[in-house]
Structures are given as structure tokens and as C-alpha cells.
């Protein structure tokens, strides 16, 4: 017999066929186990998702992960298996169990390791003990008293934004409000975190700050398949793929900028002593470990500065852009919101360039309801917030038992569109829903900032920014959708129950620009159009801006762009010089030229 004579494996083709057969048997066995014997076998979901985390990787790469997950919940119900060991839940009982009462029983998973370097920041820390200490280090810098202490820096940047929009309003030209809001938040982040404006609003050049979206996409993709990507982590940057190389390059640039910001601020604090300007990073530099009295080492400061750049330059602008998009698509809500702001707040002027956070909190309940509804309908932080089930007995959620070792998660977008929680009109932008007491009590379930001890530490700052921006812009301008067909559709209710088209890398955003037109609000129309606050930059001012920075790069065409209310890069040719980053003192000198 061939077997006894040792001839069975003499042929390469026979050996290959045998190996293929073994692999096939193992594969079939694996599929059968995952489908019928695995602890999550009884939960519905895509077949591929039950077999491999590659399904979730692919969903992130399509930029539609949370929206696909929402559709799966619409199809299958409140429990969806989205990975071999992962369960997405939209039952409202899951929120307090996992995130509020769960605490140490539901620690973060390996997913979060992908969002930082060797030293995790407060977002990526999986150790509850380390996280608690770090949060105590940082809490003062993000407190409401600290935010209000720095509010005048917000006001100065709001003034620049108003100036930019006023230029477009005077000329009657459409513009991308989403881009202007993004420029604003970049500069505000620099001011509040590092006492250093990046100068993006003045220069119109967002390349002055590295892109953070590629980092978030890289973290989401690699975090979704940790068992494989952690093994390949050191080799992935070497893969000769342009898209992959761009992701790693963007992350490296953010890391470099974070290091530079820390180095500069450490030097300034050392030089200026007690007379330094307070900011978030400085408070972190000076904070002491509550148990040991030690200060954070530089590597931890850089990790947190990295987190400031990632969290602070996208989420606020995307949230505010979505708020205006939802208002513009719902003219009745926009009119009610504008009327409340106009009736409740005084006119703005040079001494009061922006509405205060206190004014919004005290006088604008409808605007606050609009902001809350915006968070519910189109949450920006949309990745599933994964947690391990660690208790030996597992956990019961809505009568369903989930065993130890499994991963449970709530995806904000999917949960915020669960009709059993929010009603059949969950896709409708309706701020008045919060007037209902039963609905208002569900506000505690909203997950846009996370919940419990892991709730976003920047919540107060983010809300203050959104409130201030929305109130000020609605007080000063009347906005309309630039596209005539879309404007008419909005007027006849054509967008009711239809969400804006969005993309997500784990953090969501509008897909494409938010093109609008603006004009001075009714009570501002009689203002002097040549008000110093709204007058445009002329060629002399723009040349001064660049000359004082050591680089005379302003050309006549660039200056004219600024005079027309356009950012310098709107019409810049590829070979035309980019305006250099203004220094801090220069930026303040420039602000003075607007008010003298």
C-alpha cells in the first residue's frame, strides 16, 4: 500500500492537496463553531463579521461604519454581532450598565491602544487607576471656571470669524461655512491649549497644522483588528502603499507638532515664572500627582498635547457645521432660533465681539435644545465605545446574557436612532421634543461625549465653544443654503426625516462643503458698513502682516483676495507663495488694526 511504503506524500501535488484539505476542514470547523457554538452565535449580524474583524476594518475604510451599523440595528434589532467576539447594543439599559455603573467591571479594550504611541493619553488609557490620576491632573484646566477665565481668547477668534463672514455677506458671495468653522477651531485650540494661535484664520492656510483625520482613521482601522495589526505594527509603516504611507505620515506630523508645542511652552513657563499666561497645557505642566506630589514627565505632556490636537481641531467644528446644516435644512427651527437670539441678546460691538457662554446658558433655551437635538441626530463621536465583559458570571442586558470575555459596545449614532428609545420620528430634527418631560429624562442616555468616569474631559470647553459660535453667528447674520434647489426643498420640508450625508473615520463629519450665503441680520443692517470691525483687509495691511513676520510674501492678487473676503488659498496658483505663519505678537497687533 502507498501509505505503508511511504509513497503517499512523495508527490508535491499530493502534499499540496492534503494540506488544502486540512485547511478546508479547519476553515469549515471554524465557521461552524462561530455560527453555532460560539457564545455570541445566537446574535444576528453579517456572516463575515462573525468570522473576522476584517469586516469592521472594511467598514471603517468605506467611511460609513456607524451608519452601516445603524442600518443593521434597524434590520436585526437592539443586539447586533459586529465582530467574532463583539456585540453592538442599542438598548437603553446598556448605557448605565456599561458606562455609568460598570466602572472597573467593563474596562476599555485593545481598540484604544491604536490611538496613541508608547505612552497613552487620557483617552487611550485602559488602566482605570492611571486614568483616574491623570484625569485629576487635568480636571482644573477643563473646568468651567478655567474656560470662562480664557473666554476672551475665544472672543478674539470669533471676531476674526465674523470679519471673514462679513466680507462674503457684503459681496453676496457663497462660501463654505464648514471650512471657516474648521479654521476657527484650529486657532482656538492653539490659543487655549498652548497660548499660541496657529494663524489659520488670518492666513487661510490649514496646512499650517497637520491633518488629524488620517490619524483617527488609522487608529480606527488598526484598533478594529488588534489581534493582527498589533503584530504588524512595526512593519505597516514600511508597506509601499501611498494611502497607508499618508496615514502614518500625518500621525508623525501631529506627533512632531505636539512635541514642539510642549517644548515651547515649557521654555515660556520657565522664563516667565508666575507671570505666564494660563492655558490648558500650562496647568497640566504645573499639576501635581495628588498622591506623590510629582509633576508629569515630558513624555506624558507630549501624549496629552497630541490628544489636544486630535480632539480639539475637528470635533467642535464638525459639530457646529452639522448644527448649522440641520438648522438650514429646517427653516422653522432656524427662524425660531434666530428670533430667540435676536430678542434675548444685545447687539454686539467692538467691546463685546461675541455672545458669552453665560448669556446662552441663561437666556437661550431653544438654542440649547437645538444643540442637544443636533448631538442626538448627528453625533460626531460615532465609533463603538468598546468594553470588555470581565465578570465571571457575565452580564445581563435587557434580559440577554453575555458571557465573560466578550466585547460589548454602544455606537452613539445607532443608539441615537433607536425608535424604541427616541420614537418613530428619530430621524427628524425636532428641538421641541426636549420639551416633553419623558423625552427630557432620556437626555442622560445621550452618548455624544461618552458617559461615566470616561466621559470626554473636554465636554465643558466643547459646549462653550458651540454655544458661543452658534449664538454669535445667528445674532450677526442671516444664513441661507447657497444652492437654490436645496433651499427650495428645505422651504417645503423636503429634508424632514432625511439625515445630512455624512462620513466617519470613527469621528463623523459632513460629506463635502457646507455652502451658504449670509447677510447682516435685520437689526444690524443699519450699522455703518464701513465699521472698523467689519472693514476688509487692504493690501497695505496684508503686506504689513507678512513684512512684520519677516517675509514679504503678500502679492497684489493675494491682498485682493483678502479684500474680497476670501481666504488667501481660494485662488492661489500652485507656484504662489503661501503666507507665512504670523507670530503671536503680530496676530495681536493685527487684531488691534481691526479696532483702531
UniProtKB/TrEMBL annotation:
Q: Which GO terms describe its molecular function?
A: heme binding; iron ion binding; monooxygenase activity; oxidoreductase activity, acting on paired donors, with incorporation or reduction of molecular oxygen
Q: Tell me yes or no: is DNA repair among this UniProt entry's keywords.
A: no
InterPro entries from the xrefs?
Answer: Cyt_P450 (IPR001128), Cyt_P450_CS (IPR017972), Cyt_P450_E_grp-IV (IPR002403), Cyt_P450_sf (IPR036396), Cytochrome_P450_monoxygenase (IPR050121)
Superkingdom per UniProt = Eukaryota
Has UniProt tagged this entry with the keyword Oxidoreductase?
Answer: yes
Task: Identify the residues that bind heme.
Answer: 456
Cofactor(s) for this UniProt protein: heme
Query: Which PROSITE patterns did the record assign?
Result: CYTOCHROME_P450
Keyword terms of this UniProt record: Heme, Iron, Membrane, Metal-binding, Monooxygenase, Oxidoreductase, Transmembrane, Transmembrane helix
Q: Where are the transmembrane segments?
A: 12-33
Q: Which family does it belong to?
A: Belongs to the cytochrome P450 family.
Name of protein: Benzoate 4-monooxygenase cytochrome P450
Amino acid at each position: 500500500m502507498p501509505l505503508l511504503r511511504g509513497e503517499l506524500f512523495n508527490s508535491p501535488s499530493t502534499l499540496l492537496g492534503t494540506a488544502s484539505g486540512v485547511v478546508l476542514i479547519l476553515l469549515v470547523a471554524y465557521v461552524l463553531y462561530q455560527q453555532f457554538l460560539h457564545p455570541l452565535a445566537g446574535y444576528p449580524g453579517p456572516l463575515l463579521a462573525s468570522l473576522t474583524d476584517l469586516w469592521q476594518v472594511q467598514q471603517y475604510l468605506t467611511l460609513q461604519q456607524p451608519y452601516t451599523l445603524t442600518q443593521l440595528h434597524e434590520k436585526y434589532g437592539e443586539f447586533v454581532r459586529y465582530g467574532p467576539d463583539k456585540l453592538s447594543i442599542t438598548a437603553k439599559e446598556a448605557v448605565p450598565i456599561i458606562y455609568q455603573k460598570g466602572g472597573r467591571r467593563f474596562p476599555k479594550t485593545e481598540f484604544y491602544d491604536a490611538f496613541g504611541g508608547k505612552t497613552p493619553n487620557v483617552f487611550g488609557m485602559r488602566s482605570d487607576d492611571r486614568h483616574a490620576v491623570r484625569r485629576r491632573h487635568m480636571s482644573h484646566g477643563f473646568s468651567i471656571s478655567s474656560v470662562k477665565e480664557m473666554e476672551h481668547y475665544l472672543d478674539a477668534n470669533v471676531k476674526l470669524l465674523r470679519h471673514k463672514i462679513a466680507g462674503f455677506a457684503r459681496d453676496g458671495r457663497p462660501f463654505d461655512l464648514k471650512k471657516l468653522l474648521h479654521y476657527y477651531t484650529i486657532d482656538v485650540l492653539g490659543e487655549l491649549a498652548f497660548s499660541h494661535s496657529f494663524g489659520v484664520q488670518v492666513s487661510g492656510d490649514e496646512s499650517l497644522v497637520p491633518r488629524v483625520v488620517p490619524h483617527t482613521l488609522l487608529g480606527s482601522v488598526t484598533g478594529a483588528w488588534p489581534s493582527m495589526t498589533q503584530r504588524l505594527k512595526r512593519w505597516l509603516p514600511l508597506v509601499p502603499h501611498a494611502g497607508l504611507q499618508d496615514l502614518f505620515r500625518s500621525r508623525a506630523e501631529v506627533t512632531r507638532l505636539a512635541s514642539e508645542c510642549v517644548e515651547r511652552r515649557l521654555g515660556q513657563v520657565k522664563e516667565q515664572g508666575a507671570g505666564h499666561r494660563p492655558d490648558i497645557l500650562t496647568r497640566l505642566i504645573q499639576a501635581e500627582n495628588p498622591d506623590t506630589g510629582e509633576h508629569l514627565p515630558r513624555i506624558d505632556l507630549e501624549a496629552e498635547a497630541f490628544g489636544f490636537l486630535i480632539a480639539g481641531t475637528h470635533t467642535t467644528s464638525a459639530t457646529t457645521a452639522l448644527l448649522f446644516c440641520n438648522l438650514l435644512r429646517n427653516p422653522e427651527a432656524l427662524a425660531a432660533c434666530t428670533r430667540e437670539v435676536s430678542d434675548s441678546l444685545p447687539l454686539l460691538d467692538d467691546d463685546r465681539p461675541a455672545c458669552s457662554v453665560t448669556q446662552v446658558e441663561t437666556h437661550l433655551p431653544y438654542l440649547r435644545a437645538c444643540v442637544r437635538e443636533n448631538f442626538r441626530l448627528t453625533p460626531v463621536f460615532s465609533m463603538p465605545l468598546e468594553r470588555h465583559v470581565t465578570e465571571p458570571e457575565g452580564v445581563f442586558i435587557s434580559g440577554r446574557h453575555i458571557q465573560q470575555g466578550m466585547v460589548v459596545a454602544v455606537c452613539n449614532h445607532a443608539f441615537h436612532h433607536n425608535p424604541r428609545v427616541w420614537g418613530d420620528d428619530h430621524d427628524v430634527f425636532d428641538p421641541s421634543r426636549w420639551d416633553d418631560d419623558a423625552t427630557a429624562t432620556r437626555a442622560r442616555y445621550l452618548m455624544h461625549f461618552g458617559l461615566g468616569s470616561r466621559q470626554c474631559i473636554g465636554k465643558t470647553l466643547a459646549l462653550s465653544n458651540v454655544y458661543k459660535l452658534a449664538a454669535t453667528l445667528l445674532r450677526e447674520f442671516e444664513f441661507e443654503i447657497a444652492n437654490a434647489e436645496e433651499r427650495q426643498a428645505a422651504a417645503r420640508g423636503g429634508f424632514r426625516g432625511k439625515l445630512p450625508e455624512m462620513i466617519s473615520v470613527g469621528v463623523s463629519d459632513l460629506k463635502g462643503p457646507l455652502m451658504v450665503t449670509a447677510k447682516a441680520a435685520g437689526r444690524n443692517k443699519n450699522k455703518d458698513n464701513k465699521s472698523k470691525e467689519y472693514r476688509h483687509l487692504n493690501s497695505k495691511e496684508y503686506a504689513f502682516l507678512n513684512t512684520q513676520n519677516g517675509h514679504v510674501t503678500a502679492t497684489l492678487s493675494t491682498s485682493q483676495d483678502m479684500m474680497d473676503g476670501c481666504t488667501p488659498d481660494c485662488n492661489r496658483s500652485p507656484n504662489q507663495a503661501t503666507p507665512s505663519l504670523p507670530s503671536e505678537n503680530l496676530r495681536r497687533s493685527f487684531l488691534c488694526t481691526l479696532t483702531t
